[in-house]
Amino acid sequence: MNPQGPAVEVRNLVKRFEAFVAVDNVSFTVGRGEIFGFLGSNGAGKTTTIRMLCGLLTPTSGSARVGGFDLATQPEQIKQTIGYMSQKFSLYDDLTVEENIDFFSGVYGVPQALRHERKEYVLQMSALEDRSGAMTRLLAGGWKQRLALGCAILHQPPILFLDEPTSGVDPIARRSFWDLIYQLSAEGHTVFVTTHYMDEAEYCHRLALMHRGRIIGLGPATELKAALTSRTLMHLDSTDLVESLRALEGCEEVAEAAVFGSGLHLTVRDAAAAELAVRKALTERGIGIQRLEVIDPSMEDVFVAMIEEEERKVS
After folding, report:
1. Helix residue ranges per DSSP H, 66-111
2. In this structure, is residue 1 part of a structural domain?
3. Domain co-membership, 92 together with 119
4. In 3D, which of 190, 210, 180, 181 has the Cα closest to residue 198?
5. Which member of 3, 143, 157, 301 has the lowest number of beta carbons within 10 Å of its beta carbon?
6. DSSP 235-270
7. Predicted pLDDT at 41
8. Does one domain contain both 213 and 156?
9. Nearest to 50, CA basis, from 87, 17, 21
């Protein structure tokens, strides 16, 4: 791996499956030691991109370098430089925890003299020392997730690709898993992670927001949120969610209204004028207001706003 250049460089990457364009002219770089998040809904092109960068899919066009190696001419060197964890965890359920570690030590070519040391590291990192003899199929999702990550780093790869690693596990296990990612980043690993959980965006150093195969936003979460300063966001809790949406359809002071949890997020131009208009519209329909206030945008708000902007461009 070239210690001077970026960990990942992507230029105009395209992947077509016959007439369908899964990845459409994507470009970005990932710095060494960075936690880089690829955020988007299912089907946005995240997994296709990550599989190309891991050498598992051949790009239709464009170029990329991973760890300084060229994707087109040096795919085998790339595979030796990276660790890869898929959303299916890539474990063998009919093996024990220890047997899975031994198997992947062989797959990744860990030198025999280092295998015991690496096994102990993985067991400690994943907090599975007391479960090394347990059948993998009996582990809860969060423990399987930790084991899969441990197996992916047995060969101490400088770059880690984690594809939807927290899909299907509970929130506590997800947060615990991100603690492990921070630990790996602090140790010098570059971590490239795809997710459709908007709250996980806050954990990344930088983000790429992907929609329909294209990157529609790129940068730290704080910068992407700051891009919405031209809009003011308000949160509304009322006694009738559906009727509130209907009541605000013709409200000129409300540019957009979207369901967010048990309430509504309102995009407005002038908060003071919008508050008066919203209270009037809901009161006239006999709808009670429990909360109406200006809030900071979440990553979900940012993502929704960017998607709506993209849809307006093509409509």
Report:
1. 75-81, 97-107
2. no
3. yes
4. 210
5. 3
6. EEEES-HHHHHHHTTT-TTEEEEEEETTEEEEEES-
7. 82
8. yes
9. 87
User: Per residue in 150-167, is it b (16+ CB within 10 Å) or e — as a string?
Assistant: bbbbbbebbbbbbbbbbb
Confidence band (pLDDT; 50, 70, 90) for 281?
very high
Whether residue 188 sits in one domain with residue 85: yes
Question: With the C-alpha atoms ordered 196, 199, 200, 202, is the resulting torsion angle positive or negative?
Answer: positive
What integer is the mean pLDDT of 68-94? Answer: 89
Domain co-membership, 196 together with 107: yes
DSSP tag of 60: S
Question: Where residue 15 falls among pLDDT bands split at 50, 70, 90?
Answer: very high
16: tokens are 């077509």
φ, ψ of residue 44 in degrees (nearest 5)? -75, -15
Range of the domain at 48: 8-225
Buried b (16+ CB within 10 A) or exposed e, 119-129: bebbbebbebe
Helix (H, G, I), strand (E, B) or coil at 192: strand
**Is there a single domain that holds both residue 26 and residue 132?**
yes
Closest CA to 227 of 123, 305, 158: 305
Q: Are residues 199 and 176 part of one domain?
A: yes
Domain count, the chain: 2
Q: In whole angstroms, give the CA distance from residue 196 to residue 40.
A: 5
Phi and psi at 254, nearest 5°, equal -110, 110
Rounded CA separation 7/158 (Å): 9
Is there a single domain that holds both residue 114 and residue 90? yes
- Region 68-81: mean pLDDT is 92
- Rg of the chain over Cα atoms, rounded to whole angstroms, equals 23
Sort residue 89 into left (φ over 0), alpha (ψ -120 to 50) or beta. left
DSSP character string of 197-215 = -GGGGGGSSEEEEEETTEE
